[in-house]
Amino acid sequence: MDNCPQCSSQRIWKDGLRKTVSGDVQRYVCRECGYRFSAGKTLYNPSGYGSTCQICVSPRRSKNLTTVEPLREGLAGATNDTKGKILEHLWTLRKQGYKSSTIKLRSRLLNILLKRGANLNEPESVKETIAKIEASQGYKFQLVAAYDCFLSTQGLKWNPPNYRQTQKLPFIPQESEIDTLIAAMGMKGATFLQILKETGMRKGEASELFWKDIDTERNTLTVNNPEKNSNSRTVKISNKLVAMLKRLPIKSERVFTNPTYIEREFYLKRKCQASKLQNPRLLNISFHTFRHWKATMEYHKTKDILHVRQLLGHRDINNTLIYTQLVNFESDDYYVKTAKTLEEACELAETGFEYFTTIENAQVFRKRK
């Protein structure tokens, strides 16, 4: 195979063999556009959902590529000398224990500088390139940080430009909007989002969730693979979530074997629901929005910043303090329900309702909308 049928690039890599009744068929993947094909059949097309063939491997985790090959992604615009230095830099990061997501981000940012015409061997050229980019201060701050890390592994120093990363207040949706997206998902996707809603986990932490981390007897879920140097933690979950987890088939040690599919489904359903309900606010909801929502609601309910810090796994409490100023709930409306039996009261309490008062032998519970 000489060229990619999608973009005509010659950066074609072998991607294992496909077993068929007529024999083994060589699979290929294009390192330029990500197009995946085998004997003229598309296996994965990142530009759309039109493929009719089964996706045999995850687009993010190729089984048969070597350890170094993923580091080559996105370096088409580099010279051989620069490409070698970047690969050496990325390999150094891997040896130092950086996560794959961080390494891919640094590689992408360096490639952006190359495409903009920067010479990575000349810091002044990089400064001029970053200054010409029409982007936010935070984006330029990331470019500077990526190049600064590149120079550090080369044993070089520079006088970096003074860009500041400003912290914006995250978007906090209404609970009804979150529940709308959960209801629109399939069984696995809905369970994934319900976990994010009830625990405040990051997307990557939920993707690395194992069945052994879930205790259905005590209704607890343990985060044993925290991201961003966070603390491990155990979180209570509702009977509803436990029932959703029990419905999932157990095919491996991990709860979610294909988080990439859930991610694609989420963005597709989000777009459909925003159009169907004429609610553009839904487009502002990402996986991380569930974490912001959980932390904000938990602080509003308890007024205990240390409890919220423990829930999120933050090591630095300054990262938690932002949730004390996100939303003013003084004028918000309530959902109101009543309970006449102990079972009804327990069910309402487990779903987030708070006891308010007792009227005519009926307990009144409420929860903010």
Structure description:
This protein has 369 residues and is an alpha+beta fold. It folds into four domains: 1-65, no CATH class; 69-153, no CATH class; 175-315, Intergrase catalytic core (hpI Integrase, Chain A), CATH 1.10.443; 334-368, no CATH class. It has twelve helices and ten strands. It has helices at 80-95, 100-115, 123-132, 137-153, 175-184, 187-199, 203-207, 239-247, 259-277, 287-302, 305-312, 342-350; strands at 12-20, 23-30, 36-38, 41-44, 214-215, 220-223, 233-236, 334-339, 354-359, 362-368. A four-stranded antiparallel β-sheet has the order 1-2-3-4, with no helix packed on it. A three-stranded antiparallel β-sheet has the order 5-6-7. A three-stranded antiparallel β-sheet has the order 8-10-9, covered by helices on one side. Helix 1 runs antiparallel to helix 2 and helix 10 (287-302) packs antiparallel against helix 11.
